[in-house]
Amino acid sequence: MPRTDSKGRTQLMPGEAIKAGWRAWIGLVVVAAGALIVIFATQPMSNAGQPGGALAGSVVVGVAIAWLVLMGAVVLLLRSYCFRAVWDGRPVEPGSYLKGMYQVWGVLLLGGLLGTLGAVLMGSLMPGVLVALVALLALVFSRPDGRALGA
């Protein structure tokens, strides 16, 4: 099988795409889990009496929830477009697979980081950490899988 396309660019093979996906996914999980560990280590369990920060934190947590709900739905539609070869029973192209999964992982990571930022601004763990935990859990369950690639 030739490893270059008609323009002379090297093609990404399914095994390489899975390896790249695992590297990116592990890095994102480490970043999200690290942010949660830092929050657990530095924040008190209840509000420390920061009235301005509580309002700003509530707004950021609300933005995180809206981000995860709205952009989560949009990115799943975009991912289904990237995975359209599966609809015909064909394997997904490796580049298309990575593009679709990077979008999903990026939305989940940003939503989780917004939740942790909300927790920092509020000076309290809840509800920001709860949003970040949900995003991290969704990220963990959306790990790379070679089935769509035919691997």
What are its keywords?
151 residues, mainly alpha
Summarize the structure.
With 151 residues, this protein is mostly helical.
Helix fraction bin: 55-70%
CA distance, first residue to last residue: 16 Å
Main sheet makeup: none
The rough form would be described as elongated
What class, by secondary structure content? mainly alpha
Strand content: under 5%
Task: Supply Rg.
Answer: 19 Å
Low-confidence stretches: none
Number of helices: 4
State the order of secondary-structure elements, H for helix, E for strand.
HHHH
Report what the structure shows.
By secondary structure, the chain is an all-alpha fold. 69% of the residues lie in helices and 0% in strands. The protein contains 4 helices and no strands. The chain is elongated, with a radius of gyration of 19 Å. The relative contact order is 0.21.
Lay out the secondary structure.
Blueprint: H1 14-42, H2 51-82, H3 94-122, H4 128-141
Helix pairs in contact: 1-3, 1-4, 2-3, 3-4
